[in-house]
Design goal:
CATH class of the largest domain: Alpha Beta
Shape: globular
Strand content: 5-15%
CATH topology of the largest domain: 2-enoyl-CoA Hydratase, Chain A, domain 1
CATH superfamily of the largest domain: 2-enoyl-CoA Hydratase, Chain A, domain 1
Number of strands: 9
Radius of gyration: 19 Å
Number of domains: 2
Structural class: alpha/beta
Number of helices: 11
């Protein structure tokens, strides 16, 4: 795969690994980094050999949010151009992860702040180190969160804790984040990579079509009424029953074997 200036990307055994790779700036986000991230995800979305995405980072931090130089420069940009930059690149990157059709896991080590935390919130799963630092820093800059956190956090951790994060800008450790449901697991630093990889392997060996349909159904369920969701899910289920993966699942059930799903 081609090399990139601000990220690293590789695929092995059905697992796509995308790493933010600006450790000297604590992986602070730039327009160029977001362009590269979206480019890779556009490719992997159509690549059937990629069954799951791990979003990780090099160095001692997941991401310190928007690059400080960018925060300085943006003050001299017109409001029209600011909207274009934010929605085209920063919001575009988080939206691309959130709408990625395959399962996604954020591996979070160190700080995940502001826009950096939004990247992790866009993933289906978050696994963090116990001493990770998760914080929504927008209010400390006199800003709001335009990248999805104001919608996602109340549903994820409840209104009370969402208010603590968004209105007070309080810091949560990885352990506390696990307790309130902000992350799925908090582990020792030495265990992070192995834990993330074990979950990724489970997902990569799952039924790709069913996982994609389940993921879409979960997202729809957050916004749609139960009756509308039931009609949609029954339609999708009727299609999945016609797939080779379903036949393989039934065969493996009766044979007491592990199924070998092909995504067909």
């Amino acid at each position: 795969m081609k090399s990139y200036s601000h990220i690293e990307a590789s695929v092995e055994d059905g697992i796509g690994r995308l790493a933010l790779n600006e450790p000297e700036t604590l992986n602070s986000m730039t327009v160029d980094m977001m362009k590269e991230l979206v480019e890779v995800l556009d490719i992997w979305e159509l690549d059937d050999t990629v069954r799951v995405l791990i979003l990780e980072a090099r160095g001692r931090a997941f991401s310190a949010g928007a690059n400080k130089d960018f925060l300085q420069d943006i003050q001299e940009i017109s409001s029209f151009d600011i909207k274009n930059i934010i929605y085209r690149h920063f919001a575009g990157g988080t939206k691309k992860i959130r709408n990625f059709p395959k399962p996604t896991i954020a591996a979070m080590r160190g700080a995940a702040t502001g826009a950096g935390l939004e990247l992790a919130l866009a993933c289906d799963f978050r696994i963090a180190t116990k001493d990770a630092m998760l914080v929504e820093t927008w209010i400390h800059l006199g800003l709001i969160d335009p990248l999805g956190g104001m919608s996602i956090l109340p549903k994820l951790i409840g209104l009370a804790k969402a208010n603590e994060m968004l209105l007070l800008g309080e810091i949560f450790s990885g352990e506390e984040a696990e307790r309130i449901g902000l992350v799925n697991r908090a582990v020792d630093d030495s265990e992070l990579d192995a834990k993330v990889l074990s979950w990724a392997k489970l997902l990569a060996n799952g039924a790709p079509l069913a996982l994609q349909a389940m993921k879409e159904g979960i997202r729809r369920g957050l916004d749609q009424a139960p009756d509308a969701m039931a009609n949609h899910n029954i339609s999708v289920q009727s299609q999945l029953i016609q797939t080779e993966d379903f036949k393989e699942g039934v065969r493996a059930l009766f044979a007491k074997e592990k199924p070998n799903f092909k995504g067909r």
